[in-house]
Amino acid sequence: MKIAHTISAVTAPWGLSFDDAALGRMESFADMLVEKNKVMNLTAITEDDKVARLHFADCLYLLSCADLKEKRIIDIGCGGGFPSLPLLCANPDLDITGVDSTAKRIAFVDESARALGVGGQFIAARAEEYALKNREKFDFATARAVVSLNILLELSLPMLKVGGKLLAMKGMNTEEDEQAAKALQVLGGKIVDIKTYSVGEDFPERRIVVVEKVRKTPDAYPRRYAKITAKPL
Predict the structure, then answer these.
(1) Cα gap 231→233, rounded to integer Å
(2) What residues contact residue 5 under an 8 Å CB cut-off, 6+ apart?
(3) Pairing, β 138-144 against β 121-124
(4) Which of 17, 100, 176, 210 could be disulfide-bonded to 149 (CB atoms 3.0-4.6 Å)?
(5) DSSP reduced 3-state for 105
(6) 43-79 b/e with 16+ CB inside 10 Å = b?
């Protein structure tokens, strides 16, 4: 297997291990991603080592942060399938809903999931519009390199149950955390943990910012995306 050994080596120190079936699904999805990328802009990362580390291991770190089994998960801005599909490759029974505004990307992710024989549902929609019809339905939200934290909070917290958590996959720009103080206060969130990790010595450190929804989000949120970005909380 081209990427399986690297995935296993990177994730083992996190207490994670995957059977041959799971690793085989990851290999298959990596092949689908690289092949589809020839005709659709899905990723700038196509080398085996970087795919294994920056796409798969990076996403799989979430499994060391929370027990996602039998939980409802919303993946905001899932793009080419990250973190949804690596998580589903590891555990095909996870209840993941992936939302992205680009219909072509959603079609690719949905087709890939069906080909891999994993669960999940994938919907072409804007997150703020989807949130209006799906308030407080999810236990966890994930998002990988989508928008700044204050904007992400407005997109995600309305969809989380009280007690639910956002697992925001971020780089090391801690200014985002400070800028999100007002959004946390208004929307009913609280940063309860920040987990730092690395997928290899030659790669920048990454963070998972864990935000718990500690009280109900006011019905006025989320606003329309134009207003969110023009006047972020």
Answers:
(1) 6
(2) none
(3) unpaired
(4) 176
(5) helix
(6) beeeeeebbbbbbbbbbbbbbebbebeeebbbbbbbb
At 46, is the pLDDT very low, low, confident or very high (cuts 50, 70, 90)? Answer: confident
Whether the pTM exceeds 0.90: the reply is yes
Q: Enter the tokens of residue 95.
A: 């209840």
Q: How far is CA 170 from the centre of its chain?
A: 10
Cβ(178)–Cβ(150) under 8 Å?
no
Joined together, the tokens standing for residue 41 give 């802009």
Q: 């939200």: which residue's tokens? A: 141
Q: Output the six-digit token pair for 213.
A: 């929804």
Torsion sign (Cα): 53, 56, 61, 64: negative
Determine the 3-state secondary structure of 89 from DSSP. Answer: helix
DSSP codes of every residue in 111-172: HHHHHHT---EEEES-HHHHHHHSTT-EEEEEEES-S-HHHHHHHHGGGEEEEEEEEEEE-S
- Sign of CA pseudo-dihedral 78, 83, 88, 89: positive
Length of the chain counted residue by residue:
233
Specify the CATH number of the domain 67-230: 3.40.50.150
